[in-house]
Amino acid sequence: MEPHRWLPLEANPDVRFLKQLGIHPDWQFVDVYGMEPELLSMVPRPVCAVLLLFPITEKYETFRTEEEERIKAKGQDVKSSVYFMKQTINNACGTIGLIHAIANNRDKMNFETNSSLKKFLEDSLSMTPEERAKYLETYEAIRVTHESSAHEGQTEAPSIDEKVDLHFIALVNVGGHLYELDGRKPFPINHGETSDDSFLEDAIEVCKKFMERDPEELRFNAIALSAA
User: What is the pTM of this model?
Assistant: First the structure.
């Protein structure tokens, strides 16, 4: 069976995307212009999630396989309150990253009464990561919002069949631990302790590791979900 496929999102989901999903503009996505302290100080606080866009390269895929085997062998602590979903739709990683960011901060978000994302989260809370992925495949309201956002980007959306080797992940703080949420992986990755105050800096340290693994690559972009 042909896999579901959406148009890829640009590197900066804008305010309209959140508004179309029924989220009040108390939070906004802002670019992280650099990883040095003075550039991080320009990001409005508090920050409740960071999305990282990075290239899927051979080096990264090797690391991903080794990381998965290591965690399966040693185990890790993942709180049951972490909302995680698998990715079964090609090119949907931007929207899934956004769902991960919002879902794990839903207590901080103000949703419109008829919010399509609020309904999706309420319906899928008790589901497994695989069931959430299947539910998204059939959830028209989010697909339509994703497609319109992909078309509204500043650059022309690539063809739906074009192979895109850039991928979004979300970094979130759940219960004082920093989790990497990537629908291509079998489980969340616990990157250790964090706090509301240090979250942005801690998340950027994780982003730096991605960059260090692929020093020849320049295609990295971090955006923060910040208080408006």
Answer: 0.89
